[in-house]
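User: Sequence in, structure out. Go.
Assistant: Echoing your sequence, followed by the structure tokens.
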Amino acid sequence: MKKVVSICFIFIILPSIGIAQTYFQQEVNFTINVKLDDVKHEITADERIEYINNSPNELSFIYMHLWPNAYKDNTSALAKQFFENGNTKFYYAKPDELGYIDQIDFKINGQTAKWELLKDSIDICKLYLNEPLKKGEKITITTPFHVKLPSGKLSRLGHLGQSYQITQWYPKPAVYD
């Protein structure tokens, strides 16, 4: 029996220890000052993100979600997904039923930062860090932003008259693992 346990340890458990990755989770803390215009169905806000790099890697950029842009037009991944699933409400929505996020001006530790939308995705951007972010270091990302809320008939984010369903409405870092 001891030989079987020893062989099991050598051939099964020991190799898995060598390839196991140490678990980490980035720390992200938000402060958002926001105003809702319930006549125009718009949000204006200022956001402050404290981002702490708990990964073992040095980071030169961070992907950021800009989810309201999924409601911008019928070319977004969300619009295409709805259409492929037979839901044409979004695809044929009127311009005043759509939504978006704009007026973004990312700064990192008070300095303007370069960013760009991904080539095939208007709801994710790549935020270039002004200096590499080493393991254990933190930065502060700030930005103003504006959200035009879409019609709540389209999906989870939106409004139906004065009733608001506000989800995924602010710029936020994508999961890094």
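User: And one key feature?
Assistant: Confidence is low (pLDDT under 50) at residues 4-12.
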